[in-house]
Amino acid sequence: MSSDQRRLSLSDLNLDELSLAFTNWEGGLFDPVTGDVYIIGGGEVLGLENPDIDPDAEGWIRIDGDESWTGYRDMEDFTAAVNDPVARERLERSLDGRGAFLRFKNQIAEISEALRRSWFAYSDAVVEIRVIDWLVQIDLISEAEAEADAAKEQRVRGRSRHLTWLLGGDQ
Questions:
Q1: Number of structural domains in the chain
Q2: Cα gap 155→60, rounded to integer Å
Q3: Cα–Cα distance between 78 and 101 in angstroms, integer?
């Protein structure tokens, strides 16, 4: 952390916006002074009030979007946690070969609404974990704050009541 840069508190940040930048293949920019997040789309920084602003001169931090393998790994991990063997097998088959993302999404929707909600809750939680890890890595929040925010496993398991479907609850 540079000497003129202060540590932030998780409560100062919009983790949903940061997560969106992480899942956007073009990434985004993060202003560590204000906590503002700007998404990059079509090679342009979206939402800038002043298009002449120089993000580098302002000290903004580049957010690289997740690689596709990261999302694929999330789908594999989610699938492995599905309690129902028939549903798990359908999801495993959907992950084979080109077009896996669309097939997985379609299978999730076909199996059940509860599974679809579970997937989105899980996906949101694991991306948020990556965001918090990134904030610690670039020294914008402390490890102690990240740990105090919630145990990572509890964040994934407890973020949504819908995850009970995965963990052997109501199906």
A1: 2
A2: 28
A3: 13
| Beta pairing partners, 28 | 39, 63
CA distance 136 to 92: 33
Do residues 50 and 86 both lie within one domain? no
Q: Which residue has the higher pLDDT, 27 or 155?
A: 27
Supply the pTM of this predicted model: 0.76
DSSP state of 49: S
- Residues 80, 146, single domain; the answer is yes
Residues near 39 by Cβ (< 8 Å), separated by ≥ 6? 20, 21, 24, 26, 28, 45, 46, 47
pLDDT of 105 over the 90 cut: yes
Residues 111 and 34 in one domain: no
The domain of 94 spans 68-165
Beta bridge partners, 62, equal 29
**What is the average pLDDT value for the chain, to the nearest integer?**
81
